[in-house]
C-alpha cells in the first residue's frame, strides 16, 4: 500500500512541474512580445494612437470655359507653374520664418504687397529685446497689475517703431517677409498660393528639388483666366477674385456654407458671378491623417476633382467685333467734327426677337488718359447699367397703349397742329410747325408726329384738345396707366436678363399735367438700351415680351481634342408676358415702323431705303439738360448746364419675318441742331448690313462644305467600284 501511494505522489509532481513549465513558456513569450511592441514598434504605435483625421479641400480646379454661339472660345484657362504652402496645425512663427528664409533663397518674390503694419510686426519678431525696451517700467507695472492688456502693450510697441528702424530691414528680409505673409494668410491644412505669376522653370525646379527641407511647401500647376478677344465684352464677362483676395468678405458665410475654402477664387461680377455654381467645378477632396503636432502622416484622395462646366453664350463674336468696330469708327468720326464736346459713348444691343438670345451687346466710351491720349474703352455693360431719355423711339408703345387703353383704335386720325395750352409754350411736330393736317397712326409713326402722341395721351386722360385750354386731367393716373402698359414692352421694368445689377431706369416725378405729354414722346422717363431692344422685339414678334438671355447652353468640360462637351442644359426661350393688344393692333404699328425705313417720307428712309433685307424701325431724338459725367465741372464753374440731344434708333429685319432686332443709343450726341450728326442711323444701317453679310458668308461656307463632303463621298464610291 505504501509503495502505491508513493507512485501516485510522484505522478502528481511531474504534472505540476509540466504545467508550471508551460506557464513559464507562455509568460516568456508574452514578455518577449511586449518587449518588441514597446521597444521595437513602440514609436509607430504611439504615432497611431496620437494621430487624428481631417478632411480638407485641395487646390481649386480650373473654372469652366466660355464659348460664343459658334463654338469660338472667349474665356479660357492658361496653366502656370505655382508654389504653394500648406500650414500644419500649430505651426509656430519660428518654423514658418525658417521655411520662408529657405524659400527666399530659391525664388524671387515681389514685396509690393507688404504693408507698413507687416513690416512693424516683422521688426518686432526679429528684435524682441529692442521691442520690449520700447515699453516703460511704469507701463510694465500697469500690465502686471492688470490695468492694461497684452494687446495694449503690443500696440505701444507698434506705435513707437521709428521709420529709421523700418528702413533697417534689408531687401532680403523684406522678401522673407513677403513669403511669410503668404504663409500666414492661408488657413491650416489648406494650400495657399505663395507665387503663381512669373514662376520660372529654374525656380520651379529648385523648389521641387528641395521639398524635403521645406516643410509645407509644394510645387503644382495653377491656372489663370485668358481672354481670347482682349477687352471685347470684358465688362460683361466679369471678374474673379485672386487667390490672395479669396472669398469676398461680404459673402464669406454664404460661400463657406457651400463647401468653399476661404482662399478660393470666385466670380465677383456679371457672367462669372451669375454662373459661379456652373463654372466653379468639383474640387478634389483629400483626407489628411495627422499627428497631434499637425504633421501630415498620410494623404488619401477621396474624391477626384473636375474642371467646371462650360458656358456657350448667345453672343456671336464675329458680329460683336464688327459692331464694336462700327461704334468706334462712328464715335471717332463724330468727335472729329465741331459741336460734339459732350459726346462720349454709344451703345448697341442686338437680339433674336423670337427667342430673346442676345447676339451682340456692344458699348464704347471715349476716354482721355492722364497722359492726354484719347482711347475707346469697352462699355458693353452700359447697355444694362445706364439709362437715358430715349425720345421718339417709344412712340410705338404710345400708339399701342392708346389701343390697349381703348382711347383710340387702329386707323384713328388726329389733326396735327401746334398745341397751344394756357400759360405754356407751343408744342408741335418737327415737320409741321404752323399748319394743320389730318394724320393717322401709320403716318404719325412714319413722320414721327409729336402731336398725335400728345392727343393720344390726352384721350387716355379723357380730355379733348382745344386751343388755349388749361390741361385738366389726373396726370398721376394717366402716367400710371401708361407706365403699366409700357411695362408690358419692357420699358421701365427689369428685362429679366441673366446678369446681375440690371437697372430699370428713372421714373420722373409728376408735378403738372404737361409732363404727361412729354412722357408720350419719350422725353420724361429714362430707359436702358437693353429695354429698348426688348421693346422693339415685342413689336417685331407680334406681342410676346421675350426674356433676354446671354447664356445659350451649359456643357460638360470639353474633351482633350477641344470639342465642346456634352449638353448639360439648354436655355429655352421664355415669354415673360403678352401685350394686351390684338393682332391687328400690333400690325398697325409694325406697318408704321416699316414705313419709317421703307417709305420715301420715313424719318430713316434716307439711310435704310432700298436695303434688301427689308428693315422696320423707329428713330428718336430727346432734348434735355445735360446730365453726364461732366455735370459737376459745369456746376463747380458756376455755369448753367447745356442742352443736349440723345439720338436713338430701334429696328428689326426682315419686317415680315424678323430674325434680328436692335437698339442704338447715343447720349449727348450734340448741343446744337446745326451740328446734328445722324450717328444713330449710320450705326444702325452698318450693323444690319454686317449681320446679313455674315449670314450670307456662313450659308455659302455651309454649302461649300456640303459640296466638298458630297464630292469626297462620290470619290470613295468610285474608288470602291474600281476595286470591285
Can you characterise this structure?
The protein is of the alpha+beta class and 724 residues long. Among the domains are: 53-81 and 194-205 and 217-309, Penicillin-binding protein 2a (Domain 2) (Alpha-Beta Complex); 92-187, Arc Repressor Mutant, subunit A; 320-395 and 488-506 and 520-699, DD-peptidase/beta-lactamase superfamily (Beta-lactamase, 3-Layer(aba) Sandwich), CATH 3.40.710.10. It is 41% helix and 19% strand. A hairpin with a 5-residue loop joins strand 2 and strand 3 (73-86). It is elongated.
Shape: elongated
- In CATH, what is the class of one domain? Alpha Beta
How many DSSP E strands?
A: 20
Roughly what fraction of the amino acids lie in strands?
Answer: 15-25%
Cα-to-Cα separation, first versus last residue: 118 Å
How confident is the prediction overall: mean pLDDT? 87
CATH architectural grouping of one domain: 3-Layer(aba) Sandwich
Number of helices: 26
What does the largest sheet look like?
7 strands, mixed
Q: Write the CATH fold name of one domain.
A: Beta-lactamase
> Based on helices, strands and strand pairing, what is the structural class?
alpha+beta
Which ranges are low-confidence, i.e. pLDDT below 50, for 5 or more consecutive residues?
none
Q: Considering the protein shown, what is the CATH homologous superfamily of one domain?
A: DD-peptidase/beta-lactamase superfamily
What oligomeric state do the depicted chains represent? Answer: single chain
Structural Rg: 38 Å
Helix content, binned percent: 40-55%
